[in-house]
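#structure-requests
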Amino acid sequence: MRTLVLDLDDSLPGQPPLAARMAAHRAEYHPLRRLGPALRLWSLAGPFRSFQAYWRGLPRTAAPVLALLGSGDFHHLSACFIESAAGPLSVVHFDNHPDWAWTFPRRHCGSWVNEVLAMPHVQRVVTIGPCSDDIIRPRRRAGPWLHKLEIHPWWNSGARGSDGVVRARNLADCDWHVFLAELIASLPTERLWITIDKDVLAPDEAVTNWDQGGLPLARLVETIRRLARHFTIVGADICGEYAPINHRNPFKSLEARLDQPRLPPQADLAVNARTNETLISTFEEIW
């Protein structure tokens, strides 16, 4: 297993689980803060190509990769990782948001799923855990590739489409073992990529830059372990740290002010390190 700490926003290097692994040469540190501001929230083509070139230039090994990105504002970088995992692939995506909106610029933390769905080698994207109201805004959905997308909300009150009220099954009300059996039976490829935004978790298990869901960490870990028994997990990435918002770009500042909640003054950021320890240890166990 190859653990990469991609330092885009200074949210990761000081966390004890990562600092210890870097000191023991069990994780690689990649200083990328010079690119961070241009990539955060959304990116124009130039900075995105710079990150792509950096990623493609890293030495390749047979070991599976776990990449840690920092804030969920960088989730669109997952498209670079998934693009590089050549061969038939399914993507299992844990997130409080479907990240399926049409946006400008195109490379946006709220729209990257569209880019992944358009990749010919990606046969399925399964999004697990959203509670946000993004899933009840049909106008924001991606279009041509919806047949490759499944969404399983943790909790959702329903959406009104052209045919009336469409109600999604809530995982919070389901037998988790039954859901996992159905998920395992439905995935069309032997190879998987797992991408995690910790905003899928409740605030007592992560502190993030976004509104949060309610999927328990224990359920997330159980899912990773079960999938590893049945599939080859070729790589994974984790985002969803909290990083102070200080955009230089006025349009990003406005978008963040409109869309992102403010951090509660009593927030315990140490919970992110504890959750990362659990997740990293889980991947170390399966790999």
